[in-house]
Amino acid sequence: MKGKREVNNSMRRPITLIIDDGAPVNPGYWLHPEEKHVPLVPNGFALAFANLCREFGVKGKFSVLPMPNRLGRIDARLNYVAPQHLAGFLDIVRKEIAPRFDITPELLTHHSAYNLETGKFRHVYEDAWIRQATVPEITDYLALAFRILSNVGLKATGVTSPWLAGIHNEKDYAQAIGLAFYRVFRRKFTWYFLHCLGEEQPRRPWVAWRNRRRGLKVVSVPALTVDPFFETILAPTKTIARAKAMEGVDKLLERNGRRGRLRELFDRGYPLVMLTHWQSLYSEGRRAGLEGLRELLLRIEKYFGGRIKWVTVGELAGTAAE
Q1: Taking Cα atoms as reference points, which of 188, 214, 195, 101 lies closest to residue 149?
Q2: Largest CA distance in the chain
Q3: Whole-angstrom Cα distance, residue 53 to residue 292?
Q4: DSSP 105-127
Q5: What does the pLDDT look like over 288-320, one tens digit per residue?
Q6: For residue 309, what is the enclosing H or E element?
Q7: Dihedral, CA of residue 268, residue 270, residue 272 and residue 275, to nearest 10
Q8: First-to-last C-alpha distance (Å) of the chain
Q9: To which H or E segment does residue 268 belong?
């Protein structure tokens, strides 16, 4: 009987949740000043998210921005953010989120690129700077991101790309990730999230770069769904935000469980790699995305139940073919 349970467990389909843009602030407030956004994400929301994930056994990846939106370093202080708010956010991530989620930097700022030599910010966003940077430059940049997270008690396992950072020089980017990760942590395996295949042909994680002589390996893990809650951010009312969230849930898994992207992935034998954003869940304080996530998790539990297994993104990366 014991052997039978182990076989069944090994056959369960992996499922994981990618959360981008995690921070004590709302990235949209600084990235889109032409739009109306609230500047901070309350720590009560972070705790509510952690509690929901614990309730349903959710695992995945959670980004923490080391220098969110050029406001400063989270291992020092942030402009416009009270020290107790930053400390509270980091405490929740360490104690309530990190036990279930891999932690990654999303480069450094998810905004303007940081000049390591001058300590000032460049006049280009990080994705544009990465496109023309050398492997040593990207390596130094990512090493700083890893160290900042480590300084606040968060051990990163991989890297998240803001926007499409790295897609134009992906081999160099993947190499720099591997070299930076080994430099800081002396670990030979890591991974990154860059590709969003939510409306494209799904693909399993793949080895993006390796150095056989040194034993280094870097895996690319793509998201296989769109963000179902992104449209809640600019919804003009709470009612509309909730309606948008439910529309997003239906796109992933309809109420009867028969159709949707997750049903497609499950029936075709792919891992269920879901994507959303911190600000999508927060929905400008309306929490419509978080409510939508609860409904999605209820449907997943109802229709897939014991046939799935929650894993972190790093664990899924470990299944990549040689």
Answers
A1: 101
A2: 63
A3: 13
A4: --SS-SSEEE-TTTSSEEEEEHH
A5: 999 999 999 999 999 999 999 999 999 999 999
A6: strand 308-310
A7: -110
A8: 32
A9: helix 261-268
State both tokens at 192.
């990154």
Count CB-CB contacts under 10 A for residue 115. 12
Token pair of 293 as six digits: 């996530």
The residue whose two tokens read 């869940």 is: 281
- 85 conformational bin, left if phi > 0, alpha if psi -120 to 50, beta if neither: alpha
Measured CA to CA, the distance from residue 211 to residue 311 in angstroms comes to 26
The SS3 call for residue 239 is: helix
**Which CATH code fits 11-317?**
3.20.20.370
The domain limits of the chain are: 11-317
Tokens of 11: 């056959």
Residue 4 confidence (pLDDT): 35
Answer whether 0.85 is exceeded by the pTM: yes
Q: Residue 7 — φ and ψ, nearest 5°? A: -65, -45
Output the average pLDDT for the chain: 95
How many other CB atoms sit within 10 Å of the CB of residue 54? 13
Q: Residue 149 in 3-state DSSP?
A: helix
Residue 158 near residue 102 (C-beta atoms within 8 A):
yes
Q: Supply 256's token pair.
A: 């009867």
6 pLDDT exceeds 60? Answer: no
Radius of gyration (Cα) for the chain, nearest Å?
A: 19
d(CA 286, CA 296): 17
Q: Which two tokens stand for residue 254?
A: 């309809």
| Residue 225 DSSP SS3 | coil
What mean pLDDT do residues 252-269 have? 98
